[in-house]
Design a protein that fits this description.
16-stranded antiparallel beta barrel
């Protein structure tokens, strides 16, 4: 009884009613089996539970508050407020920056899971966006074109870009404090081809890095096949080169239930022998709700 009274009191204090806000709960639960060559197999749980409240003002502005929690428990993934209108939308909080939200054309984002590569430190990826505490603005699409920008506190990072969609073709150009990315994708008759190129400036601890990738996916009914290939080069004394490739397939068992399997290989040129190579197989089942 005490819990019911406390919950009711909290709702009254926030003045939240069905007429004022639309609240929804959704998410995804994933069970994964990761089998690396030469190492122990692991079982993991992934996914997230999303709670979203939306309110529309008389002037037509849509205010959204979202909190996303890890499916397996723990701290929040995304938590932000979004304001949308004819001007576009403004997003504030701990969430993907605008580059991450708009880089779907890159081949890196076509694979099911980054399988077989290192957890960190690889240089073959073309995507440069990620999660942070940021404020972002995305313009409405005009003639297929939109622009966007995000900033972190105290100017720690400023990211901006532009996308253009024309029929089957999508183009993307993005930049942040250190890197520039160009990408494109083409979709037709169930096939999608994506590609990207990234250039990262030299820093006091790293030489200039260039990376490229290309990917292909094909959807036939409930089955989707994917394959990607990527390469990164660092202009250092040993001319480090990273190479990555993967193939995978996903199958929709039923609405909201998907089975996936993927195999990937990674090779780093400046590390001799088996230490510079890795490969693995990843399998998972995902339930959306």
């Amino acid at each position: 009884m005490r819990k019911v009274l406390l919950a009711t009191t909290a709702l009254v204090a926030m003045s939240v009613t069905a007429a004022q806000a639309d609240v929804s709960i959704s998410g995804q639960g994933v069970f994964e089996v990761y089998t690396p060559d030469g190492d122990d197999q692991t079982y993991t749980t992934d996914g997230a539970i999303t709670i979203k409240g939306t309110t529309v003002t008389d002037s037509g502005l849509t205010f959204t508050a979202l909190s996303q929690r890890k499916f397996e428990g723990g701290t929040a993934n995304d938590s932000y407020i979004n304001i949308a209108g004819d001007f576009g939308n403004v997003r504030m909080g701990n969430t993907d920056d605008v580059l991450d939200l708009n880089d779907g054309a890159l081949a890196q984002n076509m694979d099911l899971e980054t399988t077989g590569g290192p957890a960190s430190g690889a240089i073959h990826g073309t995507a440069i966006g990620g999660d942070s505490q940021n404020i972002s603005f995305t313009s409405p699409s005009i003639g297929g074109a939109k622009i966007y920008v995000s900033v972190d506190a105290d100017g720690a990072n400023t990211a901006y870009g532009a996308n253009y969609a024309m029929g089957m073709v999508n183009l993307v150009a993005q930049s942040d404090e250190t890197s520039t990315v160009m990408g494109a994708s083409l979709s037709a008759n169930g096939f999608t081809v994506g590609m990207g190129s990234r250039a990262t400036d030299a820093s006091p601890t790293r030489s200039k890095i260039k990376a490229t990738d290309i990917g292909l996916s094909y959807t036939m009914g409930d089955i989707t096949f994917v394959a990607t290939s990527a390469q990164g080069k660092e202009a250092n004394a040993v001319n480090r080169t990273d190479k990555y490739k993967n193939v995978g397939v996903s199958y929709t068992i039923a609405p909201g239930v998907t089975a996936m399997i993927e195999s990937g290989d990674y090779d780093r040129s400046d590390v001799a022998g088996a230490a510079g190579k890795s490969s693995a197989t990843w399998a998972a089942i995902a339930v959306d709700f």
